[in-house]
Design goal:
- By secondary structure, this protein is mainly β.
- The protein is built from no helices and 11 strands.
- Strands 2, 4, 5, 6, 9, 10 and 11 form a 7-stranded mixed beta sheet that branches. It has a 4-stranded antiparallel beta sheet with strand order 1-3-8-7, with no helix packed on it.
- It starts with a strand and ends with a strand.
Amino acid sequence: QVRLAESGGGLVQAGGSLRLSCTASGTFFEFNPMGWYRQTPGKQRELVADITSGGKTNYADSVKGRFTISRGNAKNTVDLQMNSLQPEDTAVYYCHGNVAGLTLNYWGQGIQVTVSS
C-alpha cells in the first residue's frame, strides 16, 4: 500500500520557520512531480510548491521567496522549508505525488501548520 508520511508541522510565531518532510513508502513508480498543497476550512486545496524529477520547481505566488522545496536523496521524498511564516500560511499541508505519465495521484494524511500573530 502506498503511504505518504508527513512530519514537521506545528505551531510557530509569525516570522518563524518550519520544515516539512514527506516520505513515501510502498511505491512502485516514481512521483513526478512531487510537492505540497494546503487547505483551510471552506477553501479549496491549493498548490504551494512542487518539484519535478529533474529539479524544476514551481511555487505559488504567495510563497515565492519564503518557501523552498527540495527532493531528498531517496526516491519519492520531498521537503518544504518555510521561512518568514505569516498567519495567512495557517492550513493543513498535504504531501502529494503524481505517478509520472499517468493521471494518478497520491496524498498524505495532512499535517497542521499554525502561525500565530
